[in-house]
Specification:
Layout lengths: L1 H14 L5 H12 L3 H4 L4 H18 L3 H32 L4 H13 L1 H11 L5 H30 L2
């Protein structure tokens, strides 16, 4: 399985050598999603959820436990500061604009952790009508984040490397 995935990535990289593989995969997924027959495939929702869980398992399996323990106090403080700024911004601006707290909560979950947590959060609270918009915003964040992340990286490389 790993060798097969590696060969596919190498083929894509050779076919389009100027782009990182994740951008090619993201672009292909966005293009394929525009076809009606793709959205009508049975089991697409379940397969998507399974893919998210496998992704999280793969990321977790690659963690360096020793470095995580050494860096955990610094990382905890960093995440705490980011989360406080996020919460104050989202709920503060939301209150000023008189937005629904449920919508703000789903949007916040989509921004922080993506579609899997949106599904869980909406189901726990019975906000079924917010599942689809929340998942859509989480996926949009992934998609836009991929392109903007690489754009920022290439910009930094151009600015910092002579």
């Amino acid at each position: 399985m790993a060798l097969s995935g590696y060969l596919k990535e190498r083929w894509i990289a050779e076919f389009m050598p100027a782009l990182p593989t994740i951008l090619i995969v993201t672009t292909l997924a966005l293009v394929l999603a525009q076809f009606r027959f793709i959205s009508r495939l049975r089991g697409a929702y379940e397969l998507g959820n399974l893919s998210f869980y496998l992704f999280f398992c793969a990321v977790g399996a690659m963690i360096n436990i020793k470095m995580a323990i050494i860096l955990s106090p610094i990382l905890f403080l960093y995440v705490l500061v980011i989360m406080v700024i996020h919460m104050v911004t989202v709920y503060g601006v939301g209150r000023l604009l008189r937005l629904d707290i449920r919508v703000l909560t789903i949007a916040s979950a989509a921004a922080k952790t993506g579609p899997p947590s949106v599904i869980a959060l909406a189901n726990v609270h019975g906000w079924k009508h917010l599942v689809l918009p929340g998942v859509a915003m989480g996926l949009l964040g992934y998609d836009v984040g991929n392109y903007l992340g690489f754009a920022a990286a290439y910009l930094m490389k151009a600015l910092l490397v002579p």
